[in-house]
């Protein structure tokens, strides 16, 4: 293959076509991110019934999945340093396939710990994928329009996130309300038989997921996706980074990682708790299984707004500020209403959340130079907020109510607001 560094520049139309193909490929990956990630919203109430769990135990689903980002983010950087972005994405898909495979013996034996291991392995694969895909889509075009490209990826992610709970919920939560009522009157042997049948429902969906992930891993490996050298790309920022010796010398990155931590926590709470919360509000699970799709639909609307408005009408910073204020208002609405209206406010958190991730990411990695990969790994580690905060929500729900536990959202959105107003500007200050 011809070395691109020694040939004449590629013609603009060809370069544009290559960029478009790359965006389509990465968009397909973000679709997979969304489908796997937001299946958890069904797994939480499903495994709560199948494995006889309380709120706290059921939210270990989110913990096992998202804690892998904290554990595997830096190892993911090592993988990408050795394999490059494209091959690293294929490896991530293969690891996710192993996680899907573990669901089959977990369902056959109704072993909660094995379900959690499968989720952790899937999260590990996603950590590799996201460590590659997020900076890739950021660097693929002009930095000032990065939020727009990430918004396009978000649409792919959230369309899958809307489909996943409906598709999996139709299978896993079929007649779940009637089953819960029947279980209360069954003897021990009949109860075990019913729960075993319930657990077995996820075998076929995860077999299909296994096949799709393996196929995508092969397709990505043989695709025309170009490699991007972040070290080369960042030489233009040399003046800003030559005096830096550590990634910890970028205050805006560290604050951005904390903002990402609380953001992912509130996003996961909005998407993964809504089915269980609706049930706690007296809404049947047969209806509640659609509410995560409503949250994802609201996020998709927000992403579409981002595609149109950023940066032409609104800056990334302003989008972050508006989104965090909306998050506070919708959370208060959920806390002080009840029934379908309260659940609607939780769904609207999807709208508030939609532009936060696309805005935080480019603001946090701006000017990192040769530290871009490591900085990206910090932001991936921060996705572990999706492990910690939902678990805290579950504990609060056990001690108070599912509704009052949503007070947890308020300080999170306020910190995101601080980052949007002034925290991201810390990069202009001297090193820590």
From TrEMBL:
UniProt membrane topology term: Multi-pass membrane protein
Transmembrane segments: 23-47, 59-79, 91-108, 114-138, 150-173, 203-222, 253-278, 290-310, 319-337, 343-364, 376-393, 405-421
PROSITE patterns: MFS
Keyword set, alphabetical order: Cell membrane, Membrane, Plasmid, Transmembrane, Transmembrane helix
InterPro entries reported for this sequence: Glc/Gal_transptr_bac, MFS, MFS_dom, MFS_trans_sf, MFS_TsgA-like
Boundaries of every Major facilitator superfamily (MFS) profile domain copy: 22-428
Compartments it resides in: Cell inner membrane
SUPFAM superfamilies found in the cross-reference section: MFS general substrate transporter (SSF103473)
CDD domains (UniProt xref): MFS_FucP_like (cd17394)
Broad class of where this protein is predominantly found: membrane
Protein's job: Intake of glucose and galactose.
Family membership: Belongs to the major facilitator superfamily. FHS transporter (TC 2.A.1.7) family.
The name this protein goes by in its record: Sugar MFS transporter
Organism field: Hymenobacter tibetensis
């Amino acid at each position: 293959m011809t070395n691109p560094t020694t040939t004449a520049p590629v013609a603009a139309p060809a370069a544009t076509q290559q960029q478009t193909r790359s965006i389509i490929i990465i968009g397909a990956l973000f679709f997979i991110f969304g489908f796997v990630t937001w299946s958890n919203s069904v797994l939480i109430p499903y495994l709560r019934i199948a494995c006889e769990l309380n709120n706290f135990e059921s939210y270990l689903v989110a913990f096992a999945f998202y804690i892998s980002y904290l554990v595997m983010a830096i190892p993911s950087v090592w993988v990408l340093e050795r394999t490059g972005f494209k091959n690293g994405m294929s490896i991530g898909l293969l690891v996710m396939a192993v996680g899907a495979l573990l669901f089959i013996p977990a369902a056959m034996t109704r072993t909660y710990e094995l379900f959690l291991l499968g989720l952790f392995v899937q999260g590990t694969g996603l950590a590799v994928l996201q460590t590659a895909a997020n900076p890739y889509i950021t660097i693929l075009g002009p930095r000032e329009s990065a939020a727009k490209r990430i918004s396009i990826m978000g649409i792919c992610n959230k369309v899958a996130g809307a489909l996943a709970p409906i598709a999996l919920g139709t299978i896993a939560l079929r007649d779940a309300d009637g089953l819960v009522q029947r279980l209360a009157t069954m003897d021990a042997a009949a109860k075990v038989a019913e729960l075993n049948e319930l657990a077995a429902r996820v075998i076929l969906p995860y077999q299909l997921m296994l096949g799709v992930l393996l196929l995508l891993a092969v397709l990505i490996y043989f695709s025309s996706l170009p490699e991007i050298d972040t070290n080369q790309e960042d030489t233009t920022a040399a003046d800003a980074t030559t005096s830096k010796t550590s990634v910890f010398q970028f205050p805006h990155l560290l604050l951005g990682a904390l903002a990402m931590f609380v953001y992912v926590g509130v996003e996961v709470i909005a998407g993964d708790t809504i089915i269980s919360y609706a049930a706690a509000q007296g809404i049947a699970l047969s209806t509640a299984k659609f509410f995560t799709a409503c949250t994802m639909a609201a996020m998709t609307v927000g992403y579409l707004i981002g595609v149109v408005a950023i940066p032409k009408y609104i800056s990334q910073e302003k989008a972050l500020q508006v989104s965090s204020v909306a998050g506070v208002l919708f959370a208060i609405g959920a806390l002080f209403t009840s029934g379908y209206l309260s659940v609607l406010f939780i769904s609207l958190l999807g709208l508030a959340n939609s532009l936060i991730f696309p805005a935080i990411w480019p603001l946090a990695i701006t000017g990192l130079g040769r530290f871009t990969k490591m900085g990206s790994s910090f932001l991936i580690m921060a996705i572990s907020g999706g492990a910690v905060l939902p678990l805290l929500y579950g504990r609060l729900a056990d001690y108070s109510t599912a509704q009052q536990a949503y007070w947890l959202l308020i300080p999170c959105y306020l910190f995101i607001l601080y980052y949007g107003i002034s925290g991201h500007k810390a990069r202009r200050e001297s090193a820590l």
